[in-house]
From TrEMBL:
It comes from the Bacteria. The chain crosses the membrane at residues 35-61, 68-87, 107-127. Keywords: Membrane, Transmembrane, Transmembrane helix. This is Uncharacterized protein.
Length: 136
């Protein structure tokens, strides 16, 4: 019974937020720009993101490195979502104290750090598996 109550409350919250979003959408002065942006997001998802995720998933299933790579992809995706507004709006802001750091460089460095840690975890797993196997 708890699950059904939680589902109803979650559904009600979702419908409320959709209503707020729809009401805010009608107040936008350039509705066509928003619709073009949303259409572009759908095309980008269907043409690039979804096939990439499916291809990576296929490689992971055959490669045997699912856990660490999935974790790294999750972290990289979250970092990208957080950095995306800054990455899509290049150039110096009017107020230099708003974004004092080089976000694109730091985003790439952070992704490189995630990839490095993932490679180290996979290497450690490989070494550990190599030690467990009895030599014949």
């Amino acid at each position: 019974m708890r699950t059904s109550v939680a589902r109803v409350l979650t559904g009600a919250a979702g419908l409320t937020l959709m209503g707020v979003g729809a009401s805010l959408l009608w107040e936008v002065p350039d509705l066509t720009g928003v619709l073009v942006w949303l259409g572009g997001a759908v095309v980008l998802h269907d043409a690039l993101i979804a096939p990439s995720v499916l291809l990576i998933g296929l490689v992971l299933v055959r490669g045997g490195a699912r856990g660490p790579v999935r974790g790294a992809l999750l972290v990289a995706g979250a970092l990208t979502v957080v950095a995306l507004p800054v990455l899509l709006r290049p150039g110096k802001p009017a107020n230099s104290s708003v974004l004092p750091l080089d976000y694109p460089r730091n985003w790439l460095l952070t992704l490189a750090a995630v990839a490095t840690v993932t490679a180290l975890v996979l290497a450690a797993r490989g070494i550990r598996r190599g030690r467990r196997r009895p030599r014949s």
